[in-house]
Known about the structure:
mainly alpha
Amino acid sequence: MAWLxxxxxxxxxxxxxxxxxLAATVDPxxxxxxxxxxxxxxxxxxxxxxxxxxxxxxxxxxxxxxQLGLMxxxxxxxxxxxxxxxxxxxxxxxxxxxxxxxxxxxYRRLHWRWLGPALLAVLGALVIRYxxxxxxxxxxxxxxxxxxxxxxxxxxxxxxxxxxxxxxQACHYGWFFAGAATVSFSASLLFANWQxxxxxxxxxxxxxxxxLVASGLGYLAWSIASRQVSANQLAVMNNLLIPAGLxxxxxxxxxxxxxxxxxxxxxxxxxxxxxxxxxxxx
Length: 282
């Protein structure tokens, strides 16, 4: 759990960097492609040194293509139909998808009691992020739910692979980013605005952080840790990014925070995490 908490903090800080310094100036497809390319380069020496079985390499590449590549493609298209607040609101259903998919994947049946902690986490995030919805949002709703589903599928699928210990996982993890990079590069060729390249040292520095630390080391740590907790604990941790991101925005950039909703929603998410831990032990 400690690694999941640490990565959540890193991602919360990185999310703020994107919003404050990149979103308005750097094309999002190019930003994602650069992140995946840098992450792939980080693991390239390990891929060259250690041989990965063809079946495992293809499985990891497929997971990366879905969890990151396709997810980011759907996510950024959803912004054509939804406000930022609505995108954040609709991402809160990811824990439900993780709980349902993981249980069904292992047992080929559903047991609704496993949805309890995930639904409580969704309620907590909803308390924090609820905003008035726009009149026309159905296409955006479909796109963001497809993105949530891709992110959940990737996490659940990774938990099912026979990968060995943390060191062995790190040796082969580059294939995950190979799949993600393939999809993100294809999306850049189709949709990117090449006039919106980064052009300041700060923007390049942030992209280096996002690619090497937040994406490269962050996703590796998250994936390894996801195999050491229950599906419901993993599901709940997916929603902790919301209160963590709001706190980072307040501390570093003094963005306005509704402390009543943040406290109430965070308490519900923590309660759901405790509930998930007890279900694991039962």
